[in-house]
């Protein structure tokens, strides 16, 4: 009997070991891709295989990063864009979910609004940018509105669909206890839809970045989007690439934070 | 007047293309403390009738009285148990059994303790802080029973509560439910398509015919079967003869419809 358990323990250890080895290989190849990409970029730029004026090079970007960090302009611009994105993201998700709740609450409203939702969803929201900027002034409010507006309708549609798909028997159970419609929403509909809401959060992270960057293109006074458009106008593509890389890093961080939130909210 | 009176219930479901009559002219009465079953093939409107009695669904015609009052005024006097447990998966067992009390604003220390002791009584200890998915199907259905009984309903609706369970668990739960309801002197209506279950558990069996649902015949279960637990009733000599009678009646319904 003891020998048996020893054997199982050993097998389990081997299994864990094999998992570890696999993970190490995955990390190794990920590192290789990273190094290959940046070193071939650097080398081909140095040897003028690609035009360094347009494609820049990692070393130039790095030097510019240091310079921009020292004069403080990167931090300011990054701060502006991050604030706008976070607010746009939260606002978009919140308003979308509230709208979905209203549609669930009143089937009549949902029927009336249905075609308008379809139109609004199909319309490219960034095209509203100029109107927003004129209406709300070239500053934070209009850019945050861009970040929010781009994700509201899709959030509404996805969350409303998940509200409708909650097993009606859960609601029936609550109704047998005399629950009001609000109680049904709070006790069954909302918690049952949490996983969907979280997954729309993940989508909305990406969408708000799009909205905010486009907004900054248009307003052109502050932020990473402004850095890109400025770099483009003065033909400083090193600046463009620097902004892009910074955006990539922070968008990833935001995405990871949402995943962390997901793990916390949905107890497995 | 009886404890529960169902008077001339008609119910029709409307869709765009058709109107389907689910129940036609149903009248029946249930006495206090009685256990009755509604037996019938699918499509005889069993679940519709339960929904109407528990005022989840307003009937097209007819009235239902509980202790001579219309049921719409007595929402918390009726408990409903579904085919599956439908415990809210994100709530612990304790939160689940206190749900009814919370919704009807009756949750206090006393009712909470009563619900928790009911959980013990029904053979579940140390599961209060667990989530529903950590429990087996039979245990979950027992939790659902506690959840239903926690609000102290006067009338209990059982909508095929054992149909999703394996046979052994089903037999055990039948005994447990029957014993628990006896102890509390509850009136109960069981909906089932299982002839044996109806005979073993009930005092009376209402046989419904399908399309549209009608009350076809009422069977009175003899005293000898009524006073023993369901499992023993199934082994009683009278059991098989009643089974045969009801079986033949169901067969004749089938033939009439063909």
TrEMBL record, chain A:
InterPro entries: MetI-like, MetI-like_sf. Pfam families: BPD_transp_1. Keywords: Cell membrane, Membrane, Transmembrane, Transmembrane helix, Transport. It comes from the Bacteria. The keyword Translocase does not apply. CDD domains: TM_PBP2. The chain crosses the membrane at residues 25-43, 86-105, 117-137, 143-163, 235-258. GO terms for biological process: transmembrane transport. It is found in: Cell membrane. Residues 74-258 form the ABC transmembrane type-1 domain. It is a multi-pass membrane protein. Its main location: membrane. One of its GO terms (cellular component) is plasma membrane. Belongs to the binding-protein-dependent transport system permease family. This is ABC transporter permease. It comes from Neobacillus novalis.
TrEMBL record, chain B:
InterPro entries: AAA+_ATPase (IPR003593), ABC_transporter-like_ATP-bd (IPR003439), ABC_transporter-like_CS (IPR017871), ABC_transporter_ATP-bind (IPR050166), P-loop_NTPase (IPR027417). Residues 4-235 form the ABC transporter domain. GO terms for molecular function: ATP binding; ATP hydrolysis activity. It holds the Pfam family ABC_tran. It comes from the Bacteria. The keyword ATP-binding applies. Keywords: ATP-binding, Nucleotide-binding, Transport. This is ABC transporter ATP-binding protein. It comes from Neobacillus novalis.
């Amino acid at each position: 009997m003891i020998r048996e358990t020893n054997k199982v323990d050993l097998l389990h250890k081997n299994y864990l070991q094999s998992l570890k080895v696999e993970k190490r290989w995955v990390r190794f190849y990920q590192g290789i891709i990273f190094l290959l990409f940046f070193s071939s970029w650097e080398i081909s730029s140095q040897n003028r295989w690609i035009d360094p004026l347009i494609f820049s090079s990692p070393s130039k970007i790095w030097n510019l990063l240091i310079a921009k960090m020292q004069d403080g302009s990167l931090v300011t611009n990054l701060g502006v864009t991050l604030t706008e994105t976070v607010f746009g993201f939260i606002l978009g998700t919140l308003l979308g979910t509230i709208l979905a709740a209203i549609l669930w609450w009143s089937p009549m409203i949902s029927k009336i609004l249905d075609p308008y939702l379809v139109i609004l969803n199909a319309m490219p929201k960034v095209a509203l940018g100029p109107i927003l900027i004129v209406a709300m002034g070239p500053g934070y409010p209009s850019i945050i509105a861009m970040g929010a507006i781009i994700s509201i309708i899709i959030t509404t549609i996805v969350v409303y669909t998940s509200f409708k798909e909650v097993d009606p028997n859960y609601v029936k159970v609550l109704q047998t206890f005399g629950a009001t419609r609000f109680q049904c929403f709070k006790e069954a509909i909302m918690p049952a839809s949490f996983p969907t809401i979280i997954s729309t959060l993940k989508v909305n992270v990406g969408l708000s970045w799009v909205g905010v960057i486009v907004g900054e293109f248009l307003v052109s006074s502050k932020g990473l989007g402004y850095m890109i458009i400025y770099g483009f106008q003065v033909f400083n593509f090193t600046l463009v690439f620097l902004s892009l890389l910074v955006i990539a890093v922070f968008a990833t961080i935001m995405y990871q934070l949402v995943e962390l939130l997901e793990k916390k909210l949905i107890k497995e | 007047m009886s404890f529960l009176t169902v008077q001339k219930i008609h119910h029709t479901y409307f869709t765009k293309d058709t109107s389907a009559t689910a129940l036609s002219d149903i009248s029946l009465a249930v006495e206090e403390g009685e256990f009755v079953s509604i037996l019938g093939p699918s499509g005889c409107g069993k679940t519709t009738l339960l929904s109407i009695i528990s005022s989840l669904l307003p009937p097209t015609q007819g009235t239902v009285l509980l202790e001579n009052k219309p049921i719409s005024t007595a929402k918390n006097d009726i408990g409903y148990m579904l085919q599956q447990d439908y415990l809210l998966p994100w709530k612990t067992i304790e939160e689940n059994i206190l749900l009814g009390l919370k919704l009807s604003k009756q949750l206090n220390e006393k009712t909470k303790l009563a619900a928790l002791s009911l959980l013990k009584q029904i053979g579940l200890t140390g599961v209060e802080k667990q989530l529903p998915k950590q429990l087996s199907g039979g245990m979950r259905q027992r939790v659902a029973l506690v959840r239903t009984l926690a609000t102290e309903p006067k009338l209990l609706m059982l909508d095929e509560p054992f149909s999703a369970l394996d046979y052994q668990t089903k037999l055990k739960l039948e005994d447990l439910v029957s014993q628990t309801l006896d102890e509390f002197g509850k009136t109960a209506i069981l909906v089932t398509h299982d002839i044996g279950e109806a005979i073993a558990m009930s005092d009376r069996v209402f046989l419904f015919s399908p399309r549209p649902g009608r009350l076809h015949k009422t069977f009175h279960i003899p005293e000898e079967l009524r006073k023993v637990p369901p499992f023993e009733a199934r082994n009683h000599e009278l059991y098989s003869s009643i089974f045969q009678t009801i079986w033949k009646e169901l067969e004749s319904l089938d033939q009439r419809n063909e």
